[in-house]
Write a structure and sequence with these properties.
The chain is of the alpha+beta class and about 90 residues long.
C-alpha cells in the first residue's frame, strides 16, 4: 500500500494532482490517497511529481509518500466508514 498526502496552495494545481492520483488508487481523505502497491505505480507517481510539480513548488506546497509494507498493513486500524472499505461485498439477485 502506498499512501500519498499532499497540499498545494494553488487550487488548480491541487485539482490536477488529485485527478492524476485517481488513476492509481482511491481517495481516503480529502488530500490523502491510497494507491495500488507496485513499483510501477510508485515510479509513475514519482516521475510525474519530479517533472511537473517539483519545479513549480512554492514554500506552501508539499507531497508526502509513505510506502507501507504488507506486515505493517495488517496493523492498520480502521473505524467508521473506513472500516467497511476493506470488506468484500457480495450481492445476490
Amino acid at each position: 500500500m502506498i499512501i500519498v498526502s499532499y497540499d498545494f496552495e494553488d487550487d488548480k494545481r491541487r485539482g490536477r494532482f488529485s485527478k492524476f492520483l485517481k488513476k492509481f488508487g482511491r481517495r481516503i481523505q480529502y488530500s490523502v490517497f491510497e494507491l495500488k502497491n507496485s513499483q510501477r505505480v510508485l515510479n509513475n507517481v514519482l516521475a510525474e511529481i519530479k517533472s511537473k510539480y517539483e519545479p513549480i513548488f512554492t514554500k506552501a506546497d508539499s507531497i508526502v509518500i509513505i510506502n507501507i509494507c504488507e506486515a505493517c498493513r495488517a496493523k492498520i486500524k480502521r473505524f467508521g466508514y473506513a472500516a467497511n472499505e476493506e470488506q468484500e461485498v457480495v450481492f445476490f439477485n
